[in-house]
Amino acid sequence: MLGEMSLPKKGQDLLQKIRLETARLNVNKVVRTKAYLDFYRLYPEIRWAFLAHMISRNGGWNMTDLRSDLHSCFFNEEKRQVIFLERSNRLIFQDAYPQFLEFMESKRQNQTMFYLLPF
């Protein structure tokens, strides 16, 4: 966050927009999987967006959105694996999807926005 202050206001605003949109779409496996596919449909040249959709869909099959720190007391090993997969899927989206949004903004503005990647 400290390094962000060195960015121009436009860059700071874009980072905030990207973070909010990523959080909005990172609520559950269904929304994440659809976000990947929607992005791919807009930008089919980014083939790994479709791959991300398929991995999210297949990895998310039969998963639940349980988020309890106490899950090990209540669930067997199989259920804990499902919860682990959900958390992993959420963390991957949190890392990957902002890059899609930066690409989208770069296309919209016809200039690279990838200087924001470190943030």
Give the amount of beta strand, in percent: under 5%
How helical, in percent, are the residues?
55-70%
What is the CA-based Rg, rounded? Answer: 16 Å
Order of helices and strands, N to C?
A: HHHHH
Cα distance spanning the termini: 8 Å
Task: Give average pLDDT, whole number.
Answer: 82
Low-confidence stretches: 62-68
- State the shape: globular
Individual helix count: 5
The number of strands is: 0
Secondary-structure-based class equals: mainly alpha
Largest sheet: none
Description of the molecule:
This protein has helices at residues 9-25, 29-42, 47-60, 71-74, 77-109. It is mainly alpha-helical and 119 residues long. The chain has a domain at 33-107.
Topology:
Blueprint (H helix, E strand, L loop, with lengths): L8 H17 L3 H14 L4 H14 L10 H4 L2 H33 L10
Q: In a few lines, what is going on in this structure?
A:
By secondary structure, this protein is mainly α. The protein contains 5 helices and no strands.
Tags for this entry?
119 residues; mainly alpha; 5 helices
